[in-house]
Amino acid sequence: QVQLVESGGGLVQAGGSLRLSCAATGRTFSGNLMAWFRQAPGKEREFVALINRSGDTIHADSVQGRFTISRDNAKNTVYLQMNSLKAADTAVYYCAARKTSYTISYSPKQYAYWGQGTQVTVSS
Questions:
Q1: What is the CA 94 to chain-centroid distance, rounded?
Q2: Are 116 and 91 in contact, with CB atoms under 8 Å apart?
Q3: Torsion angle of the four alpha carbons 64, 68, 69, 75, in this order, in degrees rounded to the nearest 10
């Protein structure tokens, strides 16, 4: 069974840091484009960052310079390093995988595999 399992969420003060991890089990995702999305209460799920199989990355404007997506294919794991956190970053963060390696998409509908989500709460 294919699973993406997120961890690393929690409660942090504004200006603090967290590192989210997404571990894949059941199959390797080293060849897949991987992404992080987030969803705040009452809002739609939004794109945060993505990374292709070569390690090329794209970050949303709202997190550019503060968040960094990375991957360790040997560990079948994707990370999201979050620095200088703001109250506006409070959301459930989801890891997702596309079936393709390089085709970029910012739409959650284009991602075939999802984790269960991890809560990030930033207190101001």
A1: 6
A2: no
A3: 180
Residue pair 7/20 in contact (Cβ under 8 Å)? The answer is yes
Q: pLDDT tens digit string along 38-84?
A: 999 999 999 999 999 999 999 999 999 999 999 999 999 999 999 99
Q: Are 115 and 94 in contact (CB under 8 A)?
A: yes
Per-residue pLDDT tens for 76-108? 999 999 999 999 999 999 999 999 888 999 999
What b/e string do you get for 45-58 counting C-beta neighbours within 10 Å, with b at 16 or more? bebbbbbbbeeeee
**Distance set, CA 5 to CA 1, 26, 120, 123 (Å):** 12, 11, 15, 25
